Amino acid sequence: MTEELITLNHGSGGRAMARLIEEIFIHHFNADSNNTELAKKNDAARLNVQTSHIVTTIDAHVISPLFFPGGDIGSLAVHGTINDLSMAGARPLALTAAFILEEGFKISTLKSLVKSMALAAKEAGVNIVSGDTKVVEKGKGDGVFITTSGVGLCDHDVSLGAEQIKVGDKIILSGSIGDHGIAVMSAREGLQFDTALLSDSCALNDLVDNMMQHFKHAIHCMRDPTRGGIASALNELSEQADKGFRIYEAAIPLKESVRAACELLGLDPAYIANEGKLVCFVAEEQAEALLAKMRKHPHGRDAAIIGEVLAEPGVQLQTTLGTRRRLEMLSGEALPRIC
Amino acid sequence: MTEELITLNHGSGGRAMARLIEEIFIHHFNADSNNTELAKKNDAARLNVQTSHIVTTIDAHVISPLFFPGGDIGSLAVHGTINDLSMAGARPLALTAAFILEEGFKISTLKSLVKSMALAAKEAGVNIVSGDTKVVEKGKGDGVFITTSGVGLCDHDVSLGAEQIKVGDKIILSGSIGDHGIAVMSAREGLQFDTALLSDSCALNDLVDNMMQHFKHAIHCMRDPTRGGIASALNELSEQADKGFRIYEAAIPLKESVRAACELLGLDPAYIANEGKLVCFVAEEQAEALLAKMRKHPHGRDAAIIGEVLAEPGVQLQTTLGTRRRLEMLSGEALPRIC
Q1: Which residue of B has its CA nearest to A54?
Q2: Mutation test of the interface with chain B: which of A61, A99, A102, A147, choosing the one with the most B Cβ atoms within 10 A?
Q3: CB environment B124-137: b (16+ within 10 A), e (fewer)
Q4: I need a surface site. Which of A76, A134, B8, B266 has the fewest CB within 10 A?
Q5: What is the CATH number of the domain that holds A320?
Q6: Residue-wise pLDDT tens digits, A166-223
Q7: Same domain, A9 and A65
Q8: Residue among A56, A136, A334 minimizing CB distance to B94
Q9: Which residues contact B4 (CB under 8 A, 6 or more apart)?
Q10: Are residues A192 and A237 in the same domain?
Q11: For chain A, what is the domain count?
């Protein structure tokens, strides 16, 4: 059987594109036929909402390789956008997806990725309601890039953001750091480790729903520490909040396998990307109760209080040796195409 | 002065990326400081809405060359997504934008494109409220790809779509066809024509606002005939509506310069992309009044009734010679990367 490949015709707006959309995208994204907006094949989807606040976001995904231990660019594209909505305190309402395909890309690979997206969306309880497909000539892309955008609904009395962070707030991290970046690096470099390293890529909306149920006024800010790792996320938030954070190195959950791999690769886990973790700033008096709640959820099992908010700016790391150093923002050697 | 170029570091989530976002994206997309959600630098934007219906859409833009007579990939990315919202009868509320940059891309070029997006968004009265930036290695992209998504608000009593098209409806086209595709082809091939050929790329939301004001119940469906041209758009709608269309070739507005260029290039203008036109299906008795209204708007000046809806499926072209032929969907030679 010859392998079907993407041709420029698949992007031309004609029959070939119509078939691709019908047989791959609509087929999988509407598998249980409840995604009526997608099935209508309009260029935009109409959604009914009962709210006065919506949240919207967009994320381009260019990860290499396309498949990695624990996920692929498809599931990652769904998780990434859901998590951005969740971090704003919104419940994901719908996703849209745009594909930039390289001529010669295997249609069977596209199908696998679309299936993976459909599964990830179904698990998170969200529909992919609209999409777009473009094709570029061989050598002008890299297989597939997937951009996802999302719309979420927000309760009128929820207002999360760096500007809400208060001195004295506790900082909770939902689990171990570096899993995603190290899993991708090991796949990219063909490294073998004794222990299997899996990406933590997952949708955090259910964990956040649980957290918001009882603590929506105690939680001041959430952020998923993706590219640039927890160090960059904390530095960004510190700048935006104009406050400082004291972080206890010993309190940061880190898998032994990830620690060992980082040592081998000469990487600092604080700068490695995560795709299924969040940091959360919570009023001090509610921190222990929230932590207990998070630990009952599969995606928060290893949650820990890792620090607290101070008045003076900057992110300060209290090391396991008892010394203090500034945890700087990433400013150099990148791990390119990690998401 | 050395030319600043995009490096992989610009996509790493660290300092370089933060500077790029601050100095280029936020600087231009928030030029008049009323785009407070973007300025907050969260990963998602929160919007207040007073409606029960929202519309969302996404479009990837991979046009080559990046600059063409009458526009560039930046303005096109804004217009394209606004128009998809407008075609659903929604007023654009906000846009998001994701950039996939190739290592080595000139930062000055990026700046021009971002400025052009900011201007296009301002002219259309919409903010770009959230975004994302990724960088791929040299040779794995093509300068820049821009994906835009949008959210629009829809009146509860508006319900446009192919399924609303009725036998007897008149088909109105808002202006001349083929302008965009031919302008891009001429730029790509370095062709010189006697007359300047300009893309029709523009935002149609104001024209649609005007149309919907008095005719929102008479208009049954709108579509912008982009990739694949008017022939593909009409065939798609005919299939979705399960109705037929009779189109009068002589009634289709076509600029003499575009006709001549098509002849020279061996192209059929019915299959050439448009980026500032719409086809509209309207109740017969309101067609003339709507046409008169459209002609008063700069983007509808050359509007014309080009046909009507029949019961039997298929798109039938009544030629200027008096013969009839089926206007088929595009199924072959593409004009790649036209949008």
Answers
A1: B47
A2: A147
A3: bebbbbbbbbbbbe
A4: B266
A5: 3.90.650.10
A6: 999 999 999 999 999 999 998 888 877 767 899 999 999 999 999 999 999 999 999 9
A7: no
A8: A56
A9: B106, B107, B108
A10: yes
A11: 3
